[in-house]
Amino acid sequence: MFSLRALKARYGGSPAHLLLLVAAAALAGFAVLHWLHAPTPVRLLVWFGAAVIGHDLIAFPIYAGLDRLLVRAVAGAPGGDGISRWRRAAINHVRAPVLVSGLLLLMWYPLILKRSDGVYFQRSGQHQDRYLGNWLLAVALLFGASLVIFAGRLALAAGRSRSASRQLQTPPREPTEAPPGPGSNLP
Amino acid sequence: MTPSGPFRAEFWKSSARGRRVTAALGLILLPALTIVIVTGLLSYAAYNPRLAGNDSTPDAGILRFYLFDWPVTPSWLYQLNQGLHVIIGVALVPIVLGKLWSVLPKLFEWPPLRSPAHALERLSLLALVGGILFELVTGLLNISNDYVFGFSFYTAHFYGAIVFIAGFVVHVSLKLPLAWRAVRRREKPDDGPDTLASAAPGPRTISRRGAVGLVGGSGLVVAGLYAGQTLGGSLRATALLAPRGGPGAPDFPINRTALAAHVAKSGVEWELVLVGQQTIRLSRAQLLAMPQVTASLPIACVEGWSSQRNWTGVPLRTLGRLVGMTDPVGAYVESLEKRGAYRHVSLSRRQVGAAHTLLALKVEGQDLSLDHGYPARMIIPAAPGVHNTKWVSKVTFDV
Hints:
heterodimer; A: mainly alpha; 6 helices; B: alpha+beta; 11 helices; 40% helix; elongated
């Protein structure tokens, strides 16, 4: 005989869970059926498949590898005693502009690399020549802003450390042990 | 069988991962994606897909079921809708990627399937993850005019959205309570250990708060370098990385050149054909001799850019009365253009009757340029940009 308890035990979830997932599968299947009737079903499914693995199996190994190189370059080989606060800040003041510059390139490479210049010209009457310069300007602004903020934090911390040492009459500290600046590690 | 490689929990080193990070990113994504979904569905409705020839995704079946006619006021309605859709869509790219990063160890959890329920849940993630990345990629390629994918953007983006929505509804239903508890710090015994946190963390290079800030900040920056093309005017120059923005980009963009449409400059021989109770032909001089109406209306593209202009011309309803149509139920507008998806449009009764639905002859007090639709073009308040048919040759009013 049908019993809820048996369903839960065998299925591993509540009846509502099962209903929700079946309804969602039906909706997704309904949409995919329309794709199968399109003139290019294989292309659509290949692109969808690429989207499924695009981040996890393609993008992640690349950016995680690059990030490891960055951390190693700034902080040296991984040791047991962690990374000091200011080295960590340095990593992130490089990491942030690299990340955003890379994202902008990833999102707008058809414009930056003039990949779609032909269609773009037909549609807008303009060429895409300006985008490489625009991107480089954005990269310069991002790195510049990050550098200025980092320099500001260092100067602020050095100033505080000097005034603190005057008050306490203790010898000046190393910058790596400076008291924390305002805000997070980020610009 | 013992797990190895990424299937071992110790493989994942980042100390920044954790339930609260994922929850915070999820709670940013929930309202943002909801807006993108709603504006996306509204954008489809804005095309009045029930009317002949307007639907770019034919065979939409029951998905074409819309209970309302697209309004004509406020005139910036489509500009706002599409601005939100694309600006938020752009801002979501880093946040979606950050969210995927935060849960990546889950892809390799061991055992991979614990129960039929768990198997179904993982299957639904195909729709969620594949759906959102497919939508972001096709959306970005479309607004960059890079049609490398080789399928219809509309078919892909519309049905891709339905697949994504299926995954999204499941995911929000199952995970929202967990996310809410995690950010409110109401950890309960049945929450179990933080399975998103690394079991063997490496040296800390960023705090969890910093990681969320980095991801969210990236979203704000990429959107900030884009949004100017929707706002237009002097802000357009700030949109360094937007398809119709940046310094030197024209503030009155063109969506299809006369060159591409194979439309040559018409001389005095051009006549507008009006079909109603009777058929008449009007020259441009005759149209200019009629009472002119000037309206400030945005032209807003589905691709997210827009531009506010002062248009001058003859209201479409005035032209209807000339051919005995005092209250037409609609109108079918045709262009001189022989090919191209938007060489025609069906307008609703409300659109035809609106005081500011113009057959425009001038913009900013000057004759339209050929690329902007000379000798005459439509401008319809609150309608998608491509419905403002250029190089109009004929208008048929429906009884």
